[in-house]
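User: For documentation purposes, I need each entry recorded in a consistent format: the amino acid sequence on its own, followed directly by the corresponding C-alpha cells. There are two entries in this batch. Please keep commentary to a minimum and don't merge the entries.

Assistant: Recorded as requested. Entry 1:
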Amino acid sequence: MMQKNVRLCSAELFDYKNVAHGKIEMPSAAKRDFSCDRAEILGIYGQNGSGKTTVIEALSLAKFLLSGEALPQDAADDIAKNADAAACALSFFIGDENEGVIAEYFFLMRRADSVEQRVYIAEEKLSYRAVTAGKASAAKLLLHYEADGKGRFLAPKYRYAAIVKNEEDAVELAVAKRLSVRGGTSFLFSADAFEFLKRASREALPDGAILKTIMETLPRYAKEGFFVVDSNHSGTIAIGAVMPLALQFDGDEGTPEHMMLSLTEPSVQPLSVYDFVKKSVHALNHVLSVLIPDMQLYIKEYGGQVTADGRDGMRFEILSVRGENRIPLKNESEGIKKIISVLSILIAMYNNPSVCVAVDEFDAGVYEYLLGELLGILKESGKGQLIFTSHNLRPLEMIDKKDIIFTTTNPDNRYIRLSGVRGNNLRDIYIRSIHIGGQKEELYGYTNPLEIARAFRLAGRDGNGK
C-alpha cells in the first residue's frame, strides 16, 4: 500500500469536447494547503452540455494511462470536433504535512490516421515542484516524450543517455514506443518502457530519487486510490440487466476494482474474488442500514461452480433484505442501486486521505435530502477526496462555497468559482446570477420560454403532417 499521502490538486483541459480550455482546482490546493488532514469535496454545477461530464471523462482517461492500460476505443470522441488533439494536465501532491512534491503529468492524445486505431498518446510530460512548509518551488522537467518526434523522442538528453546505453537499448526503447502508439497506452507508464525509465532513477542524476518516487507512486495510486464513476455507470444501472459494483481495491492479486453484477441471474466468480465480495458486502451493510433504514444486503450461495477460465468459483446472488422480505436487487429503485454501486469506494474515501472518488451525476435517482446529508457527512468527518457533478441544487445549501465550481458559456474559460459571495448558501446566489448576471463569466445560455413553447407547437404540427 502507499506510504505517503497522494492527493489530486488540479486538472486542466484543452480541446476536450466543448471545453476549449478549463481548469478545476481542489479547494485545499487553491489555498496552497497540503496538510492532507481533512476531506475535500468539489461539486461541479451547470446547465446541460456545459462541460461537467467532460471533467469526469478526462479523469477517467488519465486513470487508464497512469494504470498502464489502453485508452477506450471511443476516446477519440473526447477530442473537440474542430481539433485533431486534446490535452490534459493533472497535478498530484505526494507527501504529508505540507512537505513533499507536486507531481505534474501532462498528456496529449491525437487522432490516428487508421480507422482501427482511432487515437494515440502523442506527447507526455512529467514535472515536479518541491513543497517545503507549504510553499512550492518552480517546476522542473523530469521526462518529456514525443511520439511524433524524429530521432530522439525522449528528453532531457542526459536522462535519455542514462537509459540508452547501447544500440540494443535504443532498439528496445523504440519498440516500446511503437507498442505504446499502436496500443493507445501511455509511454511513460507502460510496462515496456518502465524498466528503462527505472534506470534513470538509479543513476546519479539530478532528481533521480524524486523521479523514482513519482514513477512508483502514481501508477499504484491510479489502481488503488483513484476511482472514476462515469455516465456509463449510471446508464448501465438504468438498463437494469447488470449493476456495476465499484469495490475498494486493496492491491492484492485477484481483488477486483469493479465487477458487473448480474441482476437477472446468479453470478459466478473465482473463489478469491467471491471472498473479497463477501468482505465488501459485510462492510457495506454497516452504512447501508443507516442510509436506508432497515435495509441490508444478503448473499445467497448456490454452490461451487467452475468459472469459464477453469478456476474454482462460487455461484451466488446478492439480495436486498428488508425485515423478513428478501428482494432481488433488480426490483430496487435506480437510486438505491446507484448508492449500493458506489458505496464501497465512498467508504474508502471516508477513511483514507489517499482515495479520490470522481462521480458523474451523483444525484441520479438519489433523494435530494439524503444526497445533501451524505455530502455533508463526507465533508465534515471524512479524510479523502470526492469530485461530483450534479443537477440537484440541494448540496449548494450544505457545503462550503469554495467546494463548488460552476460551468460557464465561455468555452475558453469553462469553470469558475463564484465571486462576491457572502455566506455559504449558494443556491439563491447561483439562481440570481443566472437571471441577472454579475459574475465574470455568463453561467447560463439564455432560453426564452415563448420560443420553447413555439418550438413544441411547430414540432407537433410537423409530426401530424401539417
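Entry 2:
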Amino acid sequence: RVRMFLDPDTENFNGRIAAFKLYNAQLTQAEIQQEMLHIRPVRTANLWQWAPLWGSGDVADYSGNGRSFTAANLSTEDGPPVGWYH
C-alpha cells in the first residue's frame, strides 16, 4: 500500500504525477514496483480508476469505469516521465 499524507495547511506537494491508478485491492510490493514503470496499468483486476494527467481540463478515466473528472493547474511540461511500455 502506498500512501501520501500532506497537511493542507502547512505542506504542498512539489512534484509531478504523470498518471494515477486506483485499485480496489491491495497490491503486492512486486505489483507496485511493476506499476511504477508503466503509465498504462499492468494489472487490470480491481482497477477502480486510471487517469493520465496531461494538461488541465477534463481528465478521462481509461479504466472503463466512467470516473472522469475536471482538473486545474496540471503541468504539461516535458510529457510523462516514464514510457507507455517499459
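Summary note for entry 2:
Residues 24 and 46 are 5 Å apart (CA to CA).
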